[in-house]
Design goal:
Length: about 180
C-alpha cells in the first residue's frame, strides 16, 4: 500500500469514527433528555445521580422511589428474563439504565396474575425483567428509568402499555 493510500485510509477511518461518536453521543444525550420528560403511563420520578458503587449493599444515597427508578448502582447488571428471586435494588437500577423495564410483584399477588406477568415478560424477552419484590405486598410495580407505575392488581393492558412506551428509552447500547 502506498503512503498516500494509507493516509487516505487512516483519515477516512478517523472521520468515520468521529461521525459515529458524534451520532451515538447525540443519541445517548437526546435519549437521556427524553427520559426526563417522557409522558405516558405511571408517573415521572426525578432522576437521581447514578454513580457506580462497589457492591450490592454498599452505603449510598437513598432512592427516591420504591422500587427505585434511578440512583446509585453496581457495575453489574442483569439480563432481561423471568426471575423467581428478588433482584437487588442496586442491580435493578443498572438494568433500567440500559433501557430495560422491570415488572415486579409482591408476595400477595395471586399466582395466576404472576403467571400473566411472566407471560408478558417472555413476550418482550429483550426488554423486560420480571421478578418478585417483597416490599410491594399485594401490588405490582412497573419501573423504567425515571418512571414508576404502581398497580393494585395485575392488569395486562396497563403492563403492556408501560412496556411498549418505555422499553429501550434509556439505552447505553448493551442488549442481550
Amino acid at each position: 500500500m502506498t503512503r498516500t493510500i494509507r493516509k487516505v485510509v487512516v483519515w477516512s477511518a478517523l472521520a468515520a469514527l468521529a461521525v459515529g461518536l458524534t451520532f451515538f453521543g447525540w443519541r445517548a444525550q437526546t435519549t437521556a433528555l427524553a427520559s426526563s420528560k417522557q409522558r405516558g403511563p405511571g408517573q415521572a420520578v426525578p432522576i437521581l445521580p447514578s454513580p457506580h458503587i462497589p457492591y450490592v449493599g454498599a452505603p449510598h444515597a437513598a432512592y427516591n422511589s420504591l422500587p427505585p427508578t434511578s440512583g446509585p448502582h453496581v457495575p453489574q447488571t442483569i439480563a432481561p428474563g423471568v426471575y423467581r428471586q428478588q433482584v437487588p435494588d442496586e442491580i435493578q437500577v443498572h438494568a433500567l439504565e440500559h433501557g430495560h423495564v422491570l415488572i415486579q410483584y409482591g408476595p400477595g399477588v395471586p399466582r395466576a396474575d404472576v403467571r400473566m406477568l411472566e407471560q408478558v415478560g417472555r413476550l418482550h424477552l429483550n426488554d423486560v425483567v420480571v421478578a418478585p419484590y417483597r416490599q410491594l405486598g399485594g401490588t405490582v410495580a412497573l419501573t423504567a428509568f425515571g418512571q414508576l407505575e404502581r398497580l393494585d392488581r395485575a392488569d395486562r393492558g396497563s403492563v403492556e402499555a408501560f412496556v411498549v412506551t418505555f422499553a429501550g428509552r434509556y439505552n447505553h447500547g448493551w442488549r442481550r
